[in-house]
Amino acid sequence: MSEAHLVKLRGERRRPFVYIGVFLFAIAICVLVFTPVLERYFLLQTGRGQAVTLRLAVDSLRLTLDRYSRIPALIAARPAIAAFLQDPQSATLKADTEKLLSETATALGAKGVYLEDANGQILASSSSRFDDPLGAVADRFYRPYFDRVVAGGIGQYFALATTSGESGYFYATPVRSKGRIKGIVAVRFSVNQFEANLRGGASEIIVRDSNDIVFISSRDDWNLRSFTALDEDAQNVIAAARQYPLELLRDLPNRRTELERNIELFEINDGRGATGFVTSTSLIARAGWRVTILSPASEARALARLTAIGIFLFALLIAAITLLIWQRQARMRERFDEQREAKRSLEIRVEQRTQELNESNRQLVEEIEERKATEKQLRQTQTELIQAGKLAALGQMSAAISHEFNQPLAATKAYAENAVAFLDRNRDDDARSNVSRIVSMVDRMSSIAKHLRNFARRPQEKTKPVSVSSVLSSAIELMQPQLTKNGAELLFSKPPDDPWVIGGDIRLQQVVINLMRNALDAMTETAAPKIYLNVETEDETVRIVVIDDGTGLPDEVEKQVFDPFFSTKDPGQGMGLGLSISYNIIKDFGGRLSAENASGHGAKFTIELLRANSSDMKDAAE
Ligand code: ADP
Question: In the chain, which residues have pLDDT < 50?
Fold first, then answer.
């Protein structure tokens, strides 16, 4: 793969990381920006979710308040009350009234029932012993409910007994006689039970009065805490009304943010750090109270954070999947590129190879052409060589023939001239002698001519079974004078059987004589010349071996002995045709003539012939 391609690939691999980094950064920014929005959304959801609980709490409080609202009027309607108010000094009536009030309080579960005169002085109470702390001090209190009762309405009022710290709710109604207010019946109930009902829920519930002071709370530590810092006037009013013991009132530092109508976010700092609450508030207009339900904002905030994290994780997941898909595609692209590259390089290689093949093919064709040309040239050279060889042979032959004939011709000429001279001088005998020499010269020349004829025209005589013994006997007989002349000894071991061979008796005899003659020629310098003539027989062949004790065959001679016109003898002694003719004769018989050196002796010539079988003999007989 090329360097540029690799760089491009690396760049492509890095690109998705950059995109995904940017994408995640953008998501992170979005999450940071939108987390407050999400938080507000979840806070509002929490606030809206409080609606049912808030309504239940408000209803329950209203019910509790309403349940006792008619009670004072019922008590006031009792005749005993009216009678006592007629005669407040009567101890009996007072005792009866107090008994009535006590029984009523017990029956209602009220904390106290009081009868006051039109000036607010307690005349009788459910607790005659005045051990009811509120009752004990009630007569000394100026209470707003009294004013309201005197003004003609049913008074309802919340107050906290200063001595016990127990909160109580007062209901009061006037006792009228002839249109005039004679006294007031007041009933006090505890709200502790209601408070107890508020506890244990997931949310806090508080009830604040018009001064923003908490007087009912699911949390004890928030009781008598003011959500709004009390100014001096308000403190004076509270002090004058003895509504709450001022020394117990404390501010509750807080910060409020309105999320929507009636739903606020409270950051309350109760000394242990700020805590956030989602609040929903409902007003009980009749009493001027506000019931507020507070749920920890931490849950909504955690939910917002979780959602933000979730969105981010989701984005991360999408980024991871995108990255995976991207990488997968990049890998596939890469693989595709590699395959394309491999294919391309393969094509290039194939093209190169094809070119190489074409080139070598071209070279081969050239070589073939060259070889053909060389072969043609060789053939021509061979033809030329053959021609040259023929010419050389012809030259050799001409030289040999002219040499052979020149000498007897020159002698003949000399003898003829001498004969003429002798005849002129009438020396007839001398002339005759010369003429007879001429005749012998002519004989010699005709003998040479015969040799040449034999060589040139191979007799086409048919072969036939020939008796080796008879051929050898004739040859020995013919050679005997020369053997004797040369003082040579012939050692001939006659074959035990009489082998017959395929050949021609005269020609075979001629070959054997030629070999024996050559043997004698080679032994002119040998002290005791010997010729060994042996016959060796095998199943199919018969060998006639001629060995001498002569000079033997030097290497260069051995190579050429069968060549025509090859001779080492002096001119006039040999034409170099004997062995050549003999070789061809034996070849015509289907046999073989070979020459070698016999160890311890001179040359060894072997005539190898095919043994004549019975069918050959039969054919010959016919
Ligand atoms: P020529 O006898 O006329 O020379 P041949 O063909 O018969 O021709 O012989 C060829 C040559 O072979 C001879 O000149 C001689 O050198 C060699 N030769 C043949 N026979 C023998 C032998 N028995 N020993 C040594 N040399 C031989």
Answer: 129-142, 162-163
How far away, in angstroms, is 577 Cα from ligand 1 center?
9
- Ligand 1 geometric centre to CA of 116 (Å): 190
Residue nearest to atom 19 of ligand 1 (CA): 518
Query: Can you name the residues that pair with 608 across neighbouring β-strands?
Result: 543, 592
Give, using CA atoms, the residue closest to atom 20 of ligand 1: 518
Is residue 469 located within the same domain as residue 606?
yes
Global pTM exceeds 0.90 = no
Ligand 1 midpoint to CA 588 (Å): 21
Position 179 scores a pLDDT of: 78
Atom 7 (ligand 1): residue with closest C-alpha?
Answer: 578
What's the pLDDT score for residue 533? 96
Looking at ligand 1, which atom is closest to the CA of residue 575? 3
Do 380 and 492 fall into the same domain? no
- 607 and 496 in a common domain: yes
Of the residues 518, 556, 566, 573, which should be mutated to test ligand 1's pocket, given the most ligand atoms within 8 Å of the CB? 518
pLDDT tens per residue, range 156-174 = 666 655 445 566 777 788 8
Task: Output the DSSP codes for 187-233.
Answer: EEEE-HHHHHHHTTSSSEEEEE-TTSBEEEESSGGGTTEESS---HH
* Tally of domains within the chain: 3
Distances (CA, A) of 31 to 25, 34, 35, 276, 278: 10, 5, 6, 22, 22
Is ligand 1 within 6 A of the CB of residue 567?
A: yes
**Pocket lining: 488 vs ligand 1, CB cutoff 6 Å:** no
Asked whether 564 lines ligand 1 (CB < 6 A), one says: no
Q: What is the distance between the alpha carbons of residues 555 and 568, in angstroms, rounded to a whole number?
A: 13
Name residue 374's amino acid. T
**What is the domain range of residue 102?**
64-193
